Amino acid sequence: MGSLWNRSGMVERYADDLRADGAKAFFFQGGTTSPLTVFRDAGESSAHPNPVVADANGRWPDVFVPYVVSYDFQVKSKDDVQITFTLAVPNPNPVDLTVVIPAEERVQTGMIHGEFINTTKPGYVRLNGRTIGNAASLATERANGLNNTNSDTFALFQYLYNNVNDAMATVSGGRTPSGAIADFNANKNIVLPSCRGAALFGVDDMGNTPAGAFTGLLFNVGTTTFPAASIGANSVTLSVGQMPAHQHTGTTSVDGSHAHGGQTSTVNTFHTHSGTTGAENQTIVISSSGTTIGSAGTGYSLDHSHTYTYFSGVQQGPPGGANLLTAGTTGTTSGASFGSGDHAHSFSASGSQATNHTHNFTTGTDSVNHFHPIPNEPGHSHTFTTTTIGGTTPINNMPLARLVTWFIKL
Fold first, then answer.
1. Over pLDDT 70: what percentage of the chain?
2. Where are the beta strands (DSSP E) in 92-175?
Protein backbone atom coordinates (compact mmCIF):
# COMPACT_ATOMS: atom_id res chain seq x y z
CA MET A 1 0.00 0.00 0.00
CA GLY A 2 1.26 3.48 -0.87
CA SER A 3 0.22 7.10 -0.50
CA LEU A 4 -1.72 9.18 -3.06
CA TRP A 5 0.50 11.57 -5.07
CA ASN A 6 -0.44 15.14 -4.22
CA ARG A 7 -1.10 16.13 -7.89
CA SER A 8 -3.50 13.24 -8.53
CA GLY A 9 -6.71 14.53 -10.23
CA MET A 10 -5.28 18.01 -10.77
CA VAL A 11 -4.69 19.86 -14.11
CA GLU A 12 -1.07 20.56 -15.02
CA ARG A 13 -0.48 24.13 -16.39
CA TYR A 14 2.31 26.02 -18.01
CA ALA A 15 3.66 29.30 -16.75
CA ASP A 16 1.14 31.21 -18.88
CA ASP A 17 -1.59 29.16 -17.20
CA LEU A 18 -2.40 27.20 -20.30
CA ARG A 19 -3.25 23.54 -19.78
CA ALA A 20 -0.33 21.19 -20.33
CA ASP A 21 -2.20 18.50 -22.20
CA GLY A 22 -0.23 15.26 -22.51
CA ALA A 23 2.24 16.30 -19.82
CA LYS A 24 4.57 13.56 -18.56
CA ALA A 25 5.66 12.73 -14.96
CA PHE A 26 8.81 10.76 -14.13
CA PHE A 27 9.33 9.22 -10.64
CA PHE A 28 12.73 8.33 -9.09
CA GLN A 29 14.06 6.86 -5.89
CA GLY A 30 14.92 9.82 -3.66
CA GLY A 31 18.32 11.32 -4.49
CA THR A 32 18.93 8.92 -7.38
CA THR A 33 18.21 8.53 -11.05
CA SER A 34 16.69 5.07 -10.46
CA PRO A 35 13.09 4.92 -11.68
CA LEU A 36 10.40 4.33 -9.03
CA THR A 37 7.35 2.32 -10.06
CA VAL A 38 4.05 3.93 -9.07
CA PHE A 39 0.57 2.35 -9.14
CA ARG A 40 -3.03 2.99 -10.11
CA ASP A 41 -4.36 1.56 -6.81
CA ALA A 42 -3.44 1.63 -3.13
CA GLY A 43 -3.04 -2.13 -3.11
CA GLU A 44 -0.25 -1.75 -5.69
CA SER A 45 -1.71 -4.39 -7.95
CA SER A 46 -1.65 -2.31 -11.20
CA ALA A 47 1.45 -0.29 -12.13
CA HIS A 48 1.47 2.93 -14.16
CA PRO A 49 3.77 3.18 -17.21
CA ASN A 50 6.89 5.28 -16.70
CA PRO A 51 6.38 8.14 -17.32
CA VAL A 52 2.78 8.76 -16.23
CA VAL A 53 0.92 10.79 -18.89
CA ALA A 54 -1.78 13.46 -18.27
CA ASP A 55 -4.96 13.40 -20.37
CA ALA A 56 -5.90 15.83 -23.15
CA ASN A 57 -6.92 18.43 -20.61
CA GLY A 58 -3.67 18.09 -18.69
CA ARG A 59 -5.35 16.26 -15.76
CA TRP A 60 -3.32 13.67 -13.90
CA PRO A 61 -4.77 10.24 -13.04
CA ASP A 62 -4.68 8.85 -9.49
CA VAL A 63 -1.10 7.91 -8.71
CA PHE A 64 -0.13 5.88 -5.61
CA VAL A 65 3.52 6.13 -4.63
CA PRO A 66 4.95 3.20 -2.60
CA TYR A 67 6.15 3.92 0.93
CA VAL A 68 9.79 4.95 0.72
CA VAL A 69 12.00 7.24 2.73
CA SER A 70 11.69 9.84 -0.08
CA TYR A 71 11.18 10.14 -3.83
CA ASP A 72 11.84 12.69 -6.65
CA PHE A 73 9.53 13.49 -9.57
CA GLN A 74 10.04 15.48 -12.80
CA VAL A 75 7.21 16.94 -14.95
CA LYS A 76 7.75 17.64 -18.64
CA SER A 77 5.52 18.84 -21.44
CA LYS A 78 4.50 16.49 -24.16
CA ASP A 79 7.46 17.97 -26.10
CA ASP A 80 9.80 16.97 -23.24
CA VAL A 81 10.28 20.50 -21.98
CA GLN A 82 10.75 20.45 -18.18
CA ILE A 83 7.98 22.16 -16.29
CA THR A 84 8.96 21.21 -12.68
CA PHE A 85 11.45 18.96 -10.84
CA THR A 86 10.71 18.26 -7.19
CA LEU A 87 13.28 16.52 -4.98
CA ALA A 88 13.20 14.49 -1.73
CA VAL A 89 9.45 14.21 -1.17
CA PRO A 90 9.12 12.26 2.12
CA ASN A 91 6.83 9.25 1.96
CA PRO A 92 7.52 7.00 5.01
CA ASN A 93 5.25 4.16 6.05
CA PRO A 94 3.02 5.39 8.90
CA VAL A 95 3.52 1.93 10.46
CA ASP A 96 7.17 1.15 11.10
CA LEU A 97 7.61 -2.22 9.46
CA THR A 98 11.15 -2.39 10.72
CA VAL A 99 9.90 -3.04 14.28
CA VAL A 100 10.04 -6.80 15.03
CA ILE A 101 8.03 -8.11 18.00
CA PRO A 102 10.06 -10.79 19.81
CA ALA A 103 8.51 -14.25 19.70
CA GLU A 104 8.26 -14.41 23.50
CA GLU A 105 6.06 -11.30 23.44
CA ARG A 106 3.62 -12.68 20.89
CA VAL A 107 0.57 -14.86 21.48
CA GLN A 108 1.83 -18.28 20.46
CA THR A 109 0.31 -21.66 19.71
CA GLY A 110 -0.73 -23.53 22.86
CA MET A 111 -1.21 -20.47 25.09
CA ILE A 112 -4.35 -20.72 27.25
CA HIS A 113 -6.63 -18.03 28.62
CA GLY A 114 -10.17 -17.74 29.92
CA GLU A 115 -12.88 -15.25 28.95
CA PHE A 116 -16.37 -14.42 30.18
CA ILE A 117 -18.00 -15.66 26.97
CA ASN A 118 -19.52 -18.94 25.87
CA THR A 119 -18.89 -19.02 22.12
CA THR A 120 -16.09 -19.48 19.59
CA LYS A 121 -13.24 -17.01 19.01
CA PRO A 122 -11.19 -16.50 15.80
CA GLY A 123 -7.67 -17.87 16.06
CA TYR A 124 -8.55 -20.09 19.04
CA VAL A 125 -10.41 -23.28 19.89
CA ARG A 126 -12.09 -24.22 23.17
CA LEU A 127 -10.67 -26.79 25.58
CA ASN A 128 -13.87 -28.80 25.57
CA GLY A 129 -12.79 -32.40 24.86
CA ARG A 130 -13.72 -32.21 21.16
CA THR A 131 -11.23 -32.68 18.27
CA ILE A 132 -9.22 -30.69 15.67
CA GLY A 133 -7.67 -31.75 12.38
CA ASN A 134 -7.73 -31.07 8.63
CA ALA A 135 -10.90 -30.74 6.56
CA ALA A 136 -11.08 -34.50 5.93
CA SER A 137 -10.39 -35.54 9.54
CA LEU A 138 -14.01 -35.43 10.78
CA ALA A 139 -12.81 -33.18 13.65
CA THR A 140 -15.66 -31.85 15.79
CA GLU A 141 -14.28 -28.53 17.14
CA ARG A 142 -12.41 -27.34 14.03
CA ALA A 143 -11.54 -29.05 10.73
CA ASN A 144 -9.57 -26.83 8.34
CA GLY A 145 -7.24 -27.11 5.33
CA LEU A 146 -6.04 -29.98 3.25
CA ASN A 147 -2.62 -30.61 4.80
CA ASN A 148 -0.06 -29.22 7.23
CA THR A 149 0.93 -26.35 4.88
CA ASN A 150 -2.49 -24.72 4.53
CA SER A 151 -4.43 -25.61 7.68
CA ASP A 152 -4.75 -23.27 10.65
CA THR A 153 -5.21 -26.27 12.97
CA PHE A 154 -1.89 -28.00 12.21
CA ALA A 155 0.27 -25.90 14.57
CA LEU A 156 -1.92 -26.79 17.58
CA PHE A 157 -2.25 -30.41 16.39
CA GLN A 158 1.56 -30.68 16.39
CA TYR A 159 1.89 -28.83 19.72
CA LEU A 160 -0.46 -31.27 21.51
CA TYR A 161 0.98 -34.26 19.64
CA ASN A 162 4.51 -33.48 20.88
CA ASN A 163 3.74 -32.28 24.43
CA VAL A 164 0.71 -34.16 25.76
CA ASN A 165 0.48 -37.91 26.33
CA ASP A 166 -1.92 -39.82 24.10
CA ALA A 167 -4.03 -40.73 27.14
CA MET A 168 -4.91 -37.01 27.55
CA ALA A 169 -4.79 -35.95 23.86
CA THR A 170 -5.76 -39.07 21.94
CA VAL A 171 -5.03 -39.26 18.19
CA SER A 172 -7.67 -41.06 16.14
CA GLY A 173 -6.25 -44.32 14.84
CA GLY A 174 -3.22 -43.98 17.15
CA ARG A 175 0.11 -42.18 16.85
CA THR A 176 2.65 -43.59 14.42
CA PRO A 177 6.47 -43.40 14.34
CA SER A 178 6.13 -41.09 11.32
CA GLY A 179 5.13 -38.22 13.60
CA ALA A 180 2.66 -35.33 13.67
CA ILE A 181 2.97 -34.18 10.03
CA ALA A 182 2.32 -37.63 8.59
CA ASP A 183 -0.57 -38.33 10.96
CA PHE A 184 -2.16 -34.93 10.29
CA ASN A 185 -1.91 -35.42 6.53
CA ALA A 186 -3.38 -38.92 7.01
CA ASN A 187 -6.61 -37.17 8.07
CA LYS A 188 -6.29 -38.03 11.76
CA ASN A 189 -7.71 -35.78 14.45
CA ILE A 190 -6.55 -35.12 18.02
CA VAL A 191 -8.63 -34.65 21.20
CA LEU A 192 -8.45 -31.28 22.96
CA PRO A 193 -7.99 -31.75 26.74
CA SER A 194 -11.28 -30.95 28.44
CA CYS A 195 -11.44 -28.06 30.92
CA ARG A 196 -15.23 -28.14 31.28
CA GLY A 197 -16.01 -27.43 34.94
CA ALA A 198 -12.29 -27.74 35.74
CA ALA A 199 -9.53 -25.57 37.20
CA LEU A 200 -5.87 -25.59 36.16
CA PHE A 201 -3.10 -26.71 38.59
CA GLY A 202 0.67 -26.93 38.20
CA VAL A 203 2.45 -30.24 37.59
CA ASP A 204 4.30 -31.47 40.68
CA ASP A 205 7.87 -30.78 39.52
CA MET A 206 8.01 -28.02 36.82
CA GLY A 207 11.79 -28.43 36.47
CA ASN A 208 12.33 -28.76 40.22
CA THR A 209 12.19 -31.78 42.49
CA PRO A 210 8.59 -33.00 42.96
CA ALA A 211 6.76 -31.07 45.67
CA GLY A 212 4.72 -34.09 46.79
CA ALA A 213 1.55 -31.99 46.59
CA PHE A 214 -0.49 -34.97 45.38
CA THR A 215 0.85 -37.66 47.73
CA GLY A 216 -1.78 -40.31 48.42
CA LEU A 217 -4.23 -38.92 45.85
CA LEU A 218 -5.54 -40.90 42.89
CA PHE A 219 -5.44 -39.46 39.35
CA ASN A 220 -8.29 -39.95 36.90
CA VAL A 221 -5.84 -39.93 33.96
CA GLY A 222 -2.04 -39.56 33.99
CA THR A 223 0.31 -38.94 36.92
CA THR A 224 1.71 -36.03 38.96
CA THR A 225 4.16 -34.81 36.28
CA PHE A 226 2.02 -35.32 33.14
CA PRO A 227 0.78 -32.09 31.47
CA ALA A 228 -3.04 -32.27 31.08
CA ALA A 229 -3.33 -35.10 33.65
CA SER A 230 -6.70 -35.14 35.44
CA ILE A 231 -7.31 -35.37 39.20
CA GLY A 232 -10.21 -34.75 41.55
CA ALA A 233 -13.98 -34.34 41.37
CA ASN A 234 -16.33 -31.43 42.01
CA SER A 235 -18.23 -33.38 44.68
CA VAL A 236 -17.55 -36.50 46.74
CA THR A 237 -19.35 -38.77 49.22
CA LEU A 238 -16.96 -39.66 52.04
CA SER A 239 -16.27 -43.28 52.92
CA VAL A 240 -15.84 -44.41 56.55
CA GLY A 241 -12.06 -44.41 56.17
CA GLN A 242 -12.08 -40.77 54.98
CA MET A 243 -13.95 -39.50 58.03
CA PRO A 244 -12.01 -37.94 60.94
CA ALA A 245 -11.40 -40.24 63.91
CA HIS A 246 -14.26 -39.82 66.42
CA GLN A 247 -16.22 -41.61 69.16
CA HIS A 248 -19.89 -42.34 69.84
CA THR A 249 -21.22 -42.18 73.39
CA GLY A 250 -24.45 -43.69 74.72
CA THR A 251 -26.23 -45.29 77.63
CA THR A 252 -27.95 -48.64 78.01
CA SER A 253 -31.68 -48.75 78.64
CA VAL A 254 -33.20 -49.23 82.12
CA ASP A 255 -34.16 -52.85 82.80
CA GLY A 256 -37.10 -54.19 84.81
CA SER A 257 -37.31 -57.05 87.30
CA HIS A 258 -34.20 -59.22 87.09
CA ALA A 259 -31.60 -60.99 89.16
CA HIS A 260 -27.84 -61.25 89.19
CA GLY A 261 -26.21 -64.53 90.19
CA GLY A 262 -22.59 -64.74 91.05
CA GLN A 263 -19.84 -65.76 93.39
CA THR A 264 -17.44 -63.63 95.37
CA SER A 265 -13.77 -64.06 94.79
CA THR A 266 -11.58 -66.09 97.10
CA VAL A 267 -10.17 -64.25 100.08
CA ASN A 268 -7.03 -64.95 102.09
CA THR A 269 -6.88 -61.88 104.33
CA PHE A 270 -7.97 -60.89 107.78
CA HIS A 271 -11.73 -60.39 107.85
CA THR A 272 -14.81 -61.01 110.01
CA HIS A 273 -18.22 -62.63 109.67
CA SER A 274 -21.23 -61.42 111.65
CA GLY A 275 -24.78 -62.74 111.79
CA THR A 276 -27.52 -64.23 113.94
CA THR A 277 -28.48 -67.90 114.27
CA GLY A 278 -32.08 -68.89 114.29
CA ALA A 279 -33.99 -69.79 117.48
CA GLU A 280 -33.63 -73.35 118.69
CA ASN A 281 -36.57 -75.23 120.22
CA GLN A 282 -34.79 -77.28 122.87
CA THR A 283 -35.92 -78.92 126.07
CA ILE A 284 -33.23 -80.01 128.50
CA VAL A 285 -33.46 -81.75 131.87
CA ILE A 286 -30.46 -81.95 134.13
CA SER A 287 -30.20 -84.16 137.22
CA SER A 288 -29.04 -83.12 140.68
CA SER A 289 -25.71 -84.68 139.92
CA GLY A 290 -25.24 -82.48 136.83
CA THR A 291 -25.76 -85.19 134.24
CA THR A 292 -28.25 -84.92 131.40
CA ILE A 293 -31.35 -87.02 132.07
CA GLY A 294 -33.40 -86.08 128.99
CA SER A 295 -33.42 -83.88 125.92
CA ALA A 296 -35.29 -83.17 122.72
CA GLY A 297 -34.22 -81.57 119.44
CA THR A 298 -30.80 -81.38 117.76
CA GLY A 299 -27.40 -80.11 118.75
CA TYR A 300 -26.00 -76.67 117.84
CA SER A 301 -23.81 -76.33 114.82
CA LEU A 302 -21.29 -73.98 116.45
CA ASP A 303 -19.12 -74.33 119.50
CA HIS A 304 -20.80 -72.19 122.14
CA SER A 305 -21.73 -72.13 125.80
CA HIS A 306 -24.95 -71.72 127.81
CA THR A 307 -25.45 -70.12 131.13
CA TYR A 308 -27.47 -72.53 133.34
CA THR A 309 -28.80 -73.05 136.83
CA TYR A 310 -27.83 -76.12 138.75
CA PHE A 311 -30.88 -77.78 140.26
CA SER A 312 -30.57 -79.69 143.52
CA GLY A 313 -33.49 -81.97 143.04
CA VAL A 314 -36.80 -82.74 141.52
CA GLN A 315 -40.06 -81.77 143.20
CA GLN A 316 -43.28 -83.43 142.19
CA GLY A 317 -45.91 -80.94 141.09
CA PRO A 318 -49.68 -81.13 141.39
CA PRO A 319 -51.41 -84.06 139.84
CA GLY A 320 -51.50 -83.64 136.11
CA GLY A 321 -49.09 -80.65 136.32
CA ALA A 322 -45.42 -80.22 135.49
CA ASN A 323 -42.61 -81.28 137.76
CA LEU A 324 -40.88 -78.39 139.53
CA LEU A 325 -37.13 -78.10 139.80
CA THR A 326 -35.48 -76.91 142.94
CA ALA A 327 -33.15 -73.97 142.37
CA GLY A 328 -29.51 -74.49 142.93
CA THR A 329 -26.07 -73.09 142.02
CA THR A 330 -25.53 -71.33 138.66
CA GLY A 331 -22.71 -72.14 136.23
CA THR A 332 -21.65 -72.21 132.57
CA THR A 333 -21.46 -75.10 130.16
CA SER A 334 -18.88 -75.29 127.42
CA GLY A 335 -18.44 -77.14 124.20
CA ALA A 336 -21.29 -78.32 122.03
CA SER A 337 -24.04 -78.31 124.70
CA PHE A 338 -27.76 -78.15 124.46
CA GLY A 339 -29.85 -75.08 124.94
CA SER A 340 -32.29 -74.24 127.66
CA GLY A 341 -35.40 -73.81 125.52
CA ASP A 342 -36.39 -71.59 122.58
CA HIS A 343 -33.55 -69.13 122.11
CA ALA A 344 -31.21 -67.48 119.60
CA HIS A 345 -27.43 -67.15 119.37
CA SER A 346 -25.67 -63.97 118.32
CA PHE A 347 -22.11 -64.46 117.17
CA SER A 348 -19.19 -62.84 115.49
CA ALA A 349 -16.07 -64.32 114.04
CA SER A 350 -12.74 -62.67 113.48
CA GLY A 351 -9.14 -63.45 112.83
CA SER A 352 -7.19 -64.82 109.91
CA GLN A 353 -8.72 -67.25 107.47
CA ALA A 354 -6.42 -70.16 106.97
CA THR A 355 -7.28 -70.93 103.35
CA ASN A 356 -8.80 -69.24 100.32
CA HIS A 357 -12.55 -69.71 100.24
CA THR A 358 -15.64 -68.31 98.58
CA HIS A 359 -19.11 -67.17 99.59
CA ASN A 360 -22.02 -67.94 97.29
CA PHE A 361 -24.95 -65.55 97.05
CA THR A 362 -28.00 -64.81 94.94
CA THR A 363 -29.68 -61.44 94.77
CA GLY A 364 -33.39 -61.16 94.56
CA THR A 365 -35.42 -59.69 91.70
CA ASP A 366 -36.97 -56.28 91.91
CA SER A 367 -39.65 -54.53 89.86
CA VAL A 368 -38.20 -51.00 90.08
CA ASN A 369 -35.01 -49.33 88.84
CA HIS A 370 -32.23 -50.40 91.16
CA PHE A 371 -28.70 -51.68 91.32
CA HIS A 372 -26.90 -54.32 93.37
CA PRO A 373 -23.55 -53.38 94.87
CA ILE A 374 -21.45 -56.50 94.73
CA PRO A 375 -18.05 -56.44 96.45
CA ASN A 376 -15.37 -57.78 94.13
CA GLU A 377 -17.93 -57.94 91.33
CA PRO A 378 -16.63 -59.85 88.27
CA GLY A 379 -15.96 -57.71 85.13
CA HIS A 380 -18.83 -57.54 82.65
CA SER A 381 -20.20 -55.27 79.88
CA HIS A 382 -23.45 -54.15 78.31
CA THR A 383 -23.85 -53.79 74.52
CA PHE A 384 -25.86 -51.13 72.70
CA THR A 385 -26.47 -50.17 69.05
CA THR A 386 -26.27 -46.60 67.65
CA THR A 387 -28.46 -45.28 64.83
CA THR A 388 -26.94 -44.90 61.33
CA ILE A 389 -27.03 -41.25 60.20
CA GLY A 390 -25.91 -39.51 56.97
CA GLY A 391 -24.01 -40.82 53.96
CA THR A 392 -26.50 -39.74 51.28
CA THR A 393 -25.56 -36.17 50.28
CA PRO A 394 -22.41 -35.46 48.19
CA ILE A 395 -20.04 -32.88 49.71
CA ASN A 396 -19.24 -29.72 47.71
CA ASN A 397 -15.53 -30.15 47.06
CA MET A 398 -15.01 -26.80 45.27
CA PRO A 399 -13.83 -23.35 46.39
CA LEU A 400 -15.61 -20.19 45.29
CA ALA A 401 -15.21 -19.96 41.50
CA ARG A 402 -16.23 -17.86 38.47
CA LEU A 403 -17.02 -19.64 35.21
CA VAL A 404 -15.18 -18.84 31.97
CA THR A 405 -14.61 -20.45 28.60
CA TRP A 406 -11.05 -21.78 28.35
CA PHE A 407 -9.42 -21.03 24.95
CA ILE A 408 -6.16 -22.37 23.48
CA LYS A 409 -4.32 -20.58 20.64
CA LEU A 410 -4.26 -22.32 17.26
1. 67
2. 112-115, 124-126, 131-133, 142-143
Judgement on whether residues 112 and 232 belong to the same structural domain of the protein: yes
- Is the residue at 367 inside a domain? no
pTM assigned to the model:
0.50
List residues bridging with 2 in a β-sheet: 66
Of 150, 144, 115, 117, give the one whose Cα is nearest residue 131. 144
pLDDT in tens, 312-327: 444 444 555 544 444 4
Name the pairing type of β-strands 142-143 and 131-133.
parallel
Distances (CA, A) of 386 to 85, 248, 251: 109, 8, 10
Measured distance CA(323)–CA(265) in Å, rounded: 55
- DSSP string of 320-344, one letter each residue: TS--EEEP--EEE--SB---SSSB-
- Residue 333 inside a domain? The answer is yes
Strand partners, 39: 47, 64
Tens of pLDDT, residues 184-233: 999 999 999 999 999 999 999 999 999 999 999 999 999 999 999 999 99
First to last CA, the chain: 29
DSSP element (H, E) containing 331: strand 330-332
Please state, in angstroms and as integers, the Cα–Cα distance from residue 107 to each residue in 102, 148, 155, following that order.
10, 20, 13
Helix (H) or strand (E) holding 158: helix 154-163
Whether 220 contacts 168, CB under 8 Å: no
**Full domain range(s) for residue 321:** 276-342
Residue 113 has φ and ψ, to the nearest 5°, of -150, 160
Pairing type for strands 131-133 and 112-115 reads: unpaired
Same domain, 83 and 119: no
Task: Say which amino acid occupies 403.
Answer: L
